[in-house]
Design a protein that fits this description.
The protein is α/β, with parallel strands linked by helices and 165 residues long. The chain has one domain: HAD superfamily/HAD-like (Rossmann fold), CATH 3.40.50.1000. It contains six helices and six strands, in the order E-H-E-H-E-H-E-H-E-H-E-H. The structure holds magnesium ion.
Length: 165
């Protein structure tokens, strides 16, 4: 896939709360592969928030399987996933697609059944696209984020400006 095409998500939402699960179901999607930092909770949090629990509970009630797909160290993301009672792929190496593929294998799903959801074009969207799953870009959970992500945002802004999302 063309790298520029790989930067353009299939869907953009303001927050995971705005994610239309019925629309995903209509597309044959039954599994959510979730980034955590600034997607399902605050950047570098060690605990899920009420928001995280609410999103996971709602998706579960709607019949979705879920898996965290995090570039974070295993201790932190494993702990969060355990509390949310969902499996987790740590050291996912996004933007490489292998973490997404590991999550699909873990859930026993085909790529056509899953959506990768995250707040960063250069990790979540590209990894999802190269793995061949549906991709959802969400605006950040909160403004605060770690410096090396702040550095990437101007480039992301440029991509969004050009691609129009
Ligand atoms: Mg993130």
């Amino acid at each position: 896939m063309n790298i520029f095409k790989a930067m353009v998500p299939d869907k953009v939402v303001g927050s995971l709360k705005d994610l239309d699960l019925d629309d995903l179901k209509a597309r044959g999607i039954n599994s959510l592969l979730l980034d955590f930092d600034n997607t399902l909770g605050p950047d570098h949090a060690t605990e899920p928030t009420d928001f995280s629990y609410e999103i996971v509970k709602n998706a579960r009630e709607q019949g979705f399987d879920m898996c965290l797909v995090s570039n974070a160290k295993s201790g932190r993301s494993d702990g969060i996933a355990r509390k949310l009672d969902i499996p987790c792929v740590t050291y996912a190496h996004k933007p490489r697609p292998d973490g997404v593929n590991r999550a699909l294998a873990l859930l026993g799903k085909d790529k056509s059944e899953a959506a990768m959801i995250g707040d960063q074009v250069f990790t979540d969207v590209i990894a999802g696209k190269y793995a061949g799953v549906y991709t959802v870009f969400t605006e950040k959970y909160e403004k605060k984020e770690i410096w090396y992500i702040v550095l990437k945002r101007p480039f992301e802004k440029l991509v969004r400006l050009i691609a129009g999302f």
